[in-house]
Amino acid sequence: MKALAVDGGGIRGLIPALVLAEIESRTGRGIAGMVDLIAGTSTGAIIACGLARPRPMAAERIAALYEEDGPKIFSRSALKTVTSAGGYIDEKYDDAELVASLERHLGPARLSEATTPVMVTAYDLQAREALLLRSDGGGDVTFVQAAHASSAAPTYFEPVRVGARTLVDGGVAAVNPAAWAYAEAGGRLDFLLSLGTGEHTRPLPYDEVKDWGRLEWAVPVIDVVFDASSDAVEAQMTALADDRYLRLQTPLDEASDDLDDASPENLAALRREAERLIAERSDDIDRACAALTA
User: Fold this and answer.
1) CB distance 8 to 60 below 8 Å
2) What is the C-alpha radius of gyration for the chain, rounded to an integer number of angstroms?
3) In terms of CB atoms within 10 Å, which of 8, 127, 140, 255 comes out highest?
4) How far is CA 14 from the centre of its chain?
5) How far apart (Å, rounded) are the C-alpha atoms in residues 162 and 164?
6) pLDDT tens profile 47-87
7) What integer pLDDT is reported at residue 152 of this predicted model?
8) d(CA 1, CA 244)
């Protein structure tokens, strides 16, 4: 069994989308035809749904959507900026543009119609449990509902109602869904490719954080939890799967690590980060191509 797992990370999803486009270019094949399972969290769930939908999207096209739709999704009116107090007393963004983009590109299909088995992570606020939305069970939802729920990051977007459930971003449970993919396969994986969205490099110095309270921690704590969770899964998967597991991740030396910085300058920087990753890990990408097409 071969699987793909794509991390959460907001607009930084441009990085794994470009890596996948490179793999499709080198192999001449679509990702959906090379793997037996695609797992995604948050922005990774959007990518997973695009790859697994009926008539799968090319990864290059998915990457283009970050540059085309990202600035609209992460845009606030002056009124929203004031009424949300910058995201401290209400969600930072209206989700109308996000939903509109998902509806345009994912259409009305349900997860059960997936070309390739897919699962995306979410968290149920009412049941207080991590949740998998899957093509072979776990609720008969649409691709749009699954991607929307998985990417509803607290403080950024409001929670999503799916049936009787109230769902938020799967990153609160598993920003790196590789362990879910491994568990889904019962550990019997031939190859698992895990794609990151850029590793945090911005320090939080003691003198800056030592007197922070709830208000100051409200947004940074999300990044800290997401980053730590991803690191933990990376360590676990390296130990469990050894050479059957390949992680492609890059430090964010140039681009912002903010989930919502969709400025032209940062989108260009994210593209350069992806290109640097592809160049520096070219041999590993060749290894992934060989494993996926074997």
Assistant:
1) no
2) 18
3) 8
4) 10
5) 6
6) 999 999 999 999 999 999 999 999 999 996 544 444 444 55
7) 96
8) 11
Q: Quick one: which of 285, 248, 272 has its CA closest to 25?
A: 285
Place of tokens 């520096």: 280
User: How far is residue 217 from each of residues 75, 208, 225, 233, measured CA to CA in Å?
Assistant: 23, 11, 11, 24
3 state SS for the chain: CEEEEECCCHHHHHHHHHHHHHHHHHHCCCHHHCCCEEEECCHHHHHHHHHHCCCCCCHHHHHHHHHHHHHHHCCCCHHHHHHCHHHCCCCCCCCHHHHHHHHHHHCCCEHHHCCCCEEEEEEECCCCEEEEEECCECCCCEHHHHHHHHCCCCCCCCCEEECCEEEEECHHHHCCCHHHHHHHCCCCCCEEEEECCCECCCCCCHHHHCCCCHHHHCCHHHHHHHHHHHHHHHHHHHHHHHHHEEEECCECCCCCCCCCCCCHHHHHHHHHHHHHHHHHCHHHHHHHHHHHHC
Residue 154 tokens read as 């607290």
Which carries the bigger pLDDT value, residue 122 or residue 79? 122
The token duo for 124 is: 């149920």
Please write the tens of the pLDDT for every residue from 12-39.
Answer: 999 999 999 999 999 999 999 999 999 9
Q: What distance in Å separates the CA atoms of residue 294 and residue 283, rounded to the nearest whole number?
A: 16
On whether the CB atoms of residues 230 and 176 are closer than 8 A, the answer is yes
Kindly give, in sequence order, each residue whose CB lies less than 8 Å from that of residue 189, ignoring residues fewer than 6 positions away. Answer: 1, 2, 3, 181, 182, 241, 244, 245
Q: How far apart are CA 88 and CA 148, in angstroms?
A: 21
Tokens 């093509």 sit on residue:
135
- Of 113, 74, 68, residue with least CA distance to 97: 74
Two tokens, residue 60: 């290059």
CB 184 within 8 A of CB 2: no
